[in-house]
Amino acid sequence: MALQSIGDLAQSLVLRRQGTVLARDIARLTGELASGRTADPARTLSGNLQPLADIEHALTLAGAHREVARIAAIDAQVMQTALARVEQSGGALAEAALTASGAGGAMQPGALARAAQAALSEMIGALNTGSAGRALFGGDHSDRPPLESADTLLQALRPVLATAPGAEALKDALDDFFGAPGGGFATLVYSGGQAAAATHALGAGETVSLRIRADEAALRGQIRHAAMLALLDDPALALGHEERARLAREMGTGLLAGQDGVTALRAKLGFAEERIAQARARIDAETTSLGIARNDLVSVDVFEAATALEEAQTRLETLYTVTARTARLNLASFLS
Questions:
Q1: What is the Cα–Cα distance from 213 to 82, expressed in whole angstroms?
Q2: β-bridge pairing 207-208 and 130-131
Q3: N or C: which end of the chain has fewer CB within 10 A?
Q4: Regarding predicted confidence, which is higher, 44 or 223?
C-alpha cells in the first residue's frame, strides 16, 4: 500500500535506491565472508579505534625492526665470508712461506713474492667488501672502501723498507709503518672511519653492533706479513739470500700465529649473528601475536555473515520480483 501512495517516478526511484543499498550490503558481506574481517572497523568496535590503532602501530614497528634485522643478518654473513677469505689466504700463504724457506736454501723469492701479492690482493679485496653500497669494514665511514689497493700499499711501503740497512731495521720500519698511529698504513692505506659503525636497533631495547674495521690489529697484522712477503724479492732491500729466507720463515710463522686473531673476530661476529637470529625469531613471534590480536578485534562471525548475506540476497531477489511486477501494471490491467 505504501508504494501506491506515491507517484510512479518516485516509486521507481525508491525501488532503485533500495536495490543499490542491498547490492552494496551484499558486496560488503561477500568481502567480509571471504576475508573474515569486517569492512567497517569503526562500526564493529563501536567507534573505539584506539586498540586497533595501537596494534597497527606495533605491527609497523615490528616490520621496521624485521627489516633492520634482515639487513644486519646479511651484513654479518657477508662480513663472515670476507673474514673467512682473509683467514684462508693467510693460511695458504703461511704454508707457502714456511715450505719455501725450509727447502735447504732453494727458496725462490720471486715465486713466493708473487703468491704473497695475490694473497694480499685477496685480503684487501675481502676487507673492502660492501653490501647495498656500504663498506662493511669501514667503521663510521661506509661510503667508500676502507683500504687502498695492494699496489698502492706496496708502493708506499717499498721506499720505507729500502732505507733499512738490515733485517732488524727493516722489521722495525715495518712495525712503524703498520703500527704507529701516524704511520703509513694509517695515513696512506686505511681511509675508513675511526669510530665504530652504527648499531642495528632490533626492537625491545635490543641492539647489535658489527664493530669490525679493516684496521683491526689482527687484520692489520695479516696484511703486514703478506705485504712483507710480497716485497721479498725486491732488489732495493739490503738483504742477502739467507736473510730473505729467515724473513720468509718469520713472516710465515707470524701469519700462522695471526690466524687466532682472525678466528677471534669471526667468533665475535658469530655471536652477533646468533643474537640477530634470536631477535628475528622474537620479532616473528611478536608479529604473529599482534596479528592474532588484530584479527580478534576486526574479525567477523562467519556464520552470522553467511546468514546476513543469504538474507540480503533473498531481499534483493524479492525486490527484483516486485519491481518487475510493478513495471507491468497499467490502467487497463487495474480496471479489469
A1: 12
A2: unpaired
A3: N
A4: 223
